[in-house]
Specification:
- This protein has helices at residues 2-22, 71-84; strands spanning 54-58, 62-67, 88-89, 94-96, 99-106, 109-118, 123-129.
- It is α+β, with helices and mostly antiparallel strands.
- Strands 1, 2, 3, 4, 5, 6 and 7 form a seven-stranded antiparallel beta sheet that branches.
Length: 131
């Protein structure tokens, strides 16, 4: 009987050790609601993102995100910030209602910023196509 209790205690201790090993040491913590999460992939430092950018998706060919900025606010943001970073505006924004795009050029590279505003959600989806 004594040996059985020893084996049972050993099994409980070992199963606890196995479970402890199976759990990650640090569990990932989701970002608090409303917190802007910046990507780990490299984004050109001369391509600004609105301070409230969310749902960020970055690849080597594009940057996509959502913002609560309206169309006019977004256009003004990019016109001023891109020019501050040395980009030249190429023509007027091509605008069709709540959908449009902006073109910028710098050092022979052209960047296309496309946007679409959703009146229902008050969210503007943006996609920046990289050279």
């Amino acid at each position: 009987m004594r040996r059985h209790g020893y084996l049972l205690g050993l099994m409980v201790m070992l199963s606890g050790g196995v479970l402890a090993c199976a759990r990650p040491a640090v569990s990932p913590t989701p970002a608090p609601p409303g917190e802007v999460v910046r990507p780990t992939p490299t984004i050109r430092p001369d391509l600004p993102l609105p301070p409230d950018a969310f749902n960020l998706d970055v690849t080597s060919a594009r940057i996509a995100f959502d913002t609560r900025m309206g169309v006019q606010e977004l256009i003004e943001f990019y016109k001023s910030r891109m020019q501050e970073n040395g980009w030249q505006v190429l023509g007027a924004p091509a605008q069709y209602g709540q959908v449009g795009n902006l073109l910028f050029q710098k050092d022979g590279l052209t960047v296309n910023i496309q946007y679409q505003h959703n009146d229902l959600t008050q969210i503007t989806s943006v996609q920046i196509t990289l050279p």
